[in-house]
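Obj: model holo form, ligand = zinc ion.
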Amino acid sequence: MLNGKKFKNNKFIYFICYALLAIIIVFTVNEYFNGLKYEHIKYSDFVNYINQNKISQVKIGKDKLFITLKSKQNEEEKILYTEKLNDPDLIQKLDDANIKFDGSSQENAVMKNIFTGWILPVIILMFFAKVILGALGKRMGSGVMSFGRNTAKIYAENETGVNFEDVAGQEEAKESLVEIVDFLHNSQKYASIGARLPKGALLVGPPGTGKTLLAKAVAGEAKVPFFSISGSAFVEMFVGMGAARVRDLFQQAQEKAPCIVFIDEIDAIGKSRGGNVSGNDEREQTLNQLLAEMDGFDSSKGVVILAATNRPEVLDKALLRPGRFDRRVVVDRPDLKGREDILKVHIKGVKVSKDVDLNAIAKSTPGAVGADLANIINEAALKAVKNNRYEVTQDDLQNAVELIIAGKEKKDRILSPEEKRQVAFHEVGHALVATLLKHTDPVHKITIVPRTMGSLGYTMQLPIEEKYLITREEMIDQICVMLAGRAAEEVRFSSISTGAANDIERATETARSMVTVYGMTERFDMMALESMQDKYLDGRPVRNCSAETASIIDEETLNIIKQCHNKSRELLKNNIKLLEKISEELIEKETLMGDEFMGIIRMYRGKGK
Ligand code: ADP
Ligand code: MG
Ligand code: ZN
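Output (holo structure tokens):
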């Protein structure tokens, strides 16, 4: 752990404040009590008292004389004192008047009092002040006394001690973060060329997939300090406190640059603003401050802000604008190989018996995230200890899987084998049709690992080059690909599933725009039937045609969809062997990259049908 210099200075100032306060209190109290006990008289009065023979005893101190009168009745009465003037005849006078005298013990008493009357009370008072103010601070939302300075909630580490090797199964995420590591490592180099450094990246993915771990690994790889704060820590604070903390966080970070600032659970502050008027004012202020800080700081110093969320859809759009969290790094559930790698990372420090087969464990944990897998290993190790064994066996691991996964299965969406099969055929349907048709983008990746955003799998196509114009043929082929998922289910299974809802929506939208916006049908030729005039308001196209025309539009749209659906179905029927082969492979591996996918097709074709 690292504490910024600021923190220490702060503590020192508080210490001084408490001490001064205590000293003032003790001083006042001492004065008051001394006032009760001692009474000052003039030297001349003292001499008068001698002459009047009123004095019974005098104690001579270093510079004071303490006088006891003959009339003194009890101990309660005040002791008189006076300054000891340079009077050479004093002793003589006292002797003459037959007054007892003696060196003063009072001054020793004063010396003693420095401890009992000063130091001890000061210490006790300081102690109470600290306890009381501390308790007060805690009750009032932590940090009343820190005036916006974060003493507890910002975590700072000089060395996270984590690097990319510790994060397994997130190759794509790591790849996109390597660049940030380099920025931080050589921020001078980038600055001297004048390159603008990236300000922030948003790590998106389900809980337990290693977002926090990745953020730490970035700091560890770049060997820079790591500041972290959790979005939820802002929520219960006083108005203005959140904003103050954000300001403080950034100030500290800039002093320590290059460094990483990590905001965990950013959705707690970054929820989109507006909407409900009554809204949480505090959160809004905090968010505004965050935006202002992100815009304000000089990225050439090498401060990179990482944030994590599992609900990217609720984030305020302003956070995602260029110059803020404009990069998104998806940290998704690991596939089979990823799970095996994660298990390998966590089994490192554990003694295992020879029969342990991590691949088998990975196979039996579809949908599990890194945190689950780490948990499984730990559970298994505990079990081994409980049974007085020195090694973890496959049985221990298997038991742990049941323990951890069974509990989660109900909560999380983990596919049954039949569902997995159906999803696999659906996705391969998309991919295969995309490959069989001419005017389509190559397949980049197919996966049936359940996604964050509700879909059960996806097929990702990446264009070879950016396109500004899309031809009619391309649009038709796109629709065919969108409908191919359902088509594959039809070709292979007797039943169809609800898994195509999103495909259907997108296909319909594309088909409709061919009719109404792009003038791609014989029927309507080049007639504009919808316009996008209020694009900046809500982005919805405005229909500008009669009701009869609208029903013809529906008809034309349906035509296109039917044609495409048929085309996909035919294509898949003719290639059903290939569809099955690839699907089996996908069920086995859960994720196929584009080249693996093409490899299977080529191998199959090479052998001849
Ligand atoms: P998140 O922030 O995404 O919720 P964490 O980073 O807090 O998840 O992960 C919790 C723990 O799970 C980590 O400390 C680590 O032990 C383990 N873990 C998660 N993902 C991975 C991974 N990809 N590789 C290795 N361990 C992981
Ligand atoms: Mg986390
Ligand atoms: Zn689909």
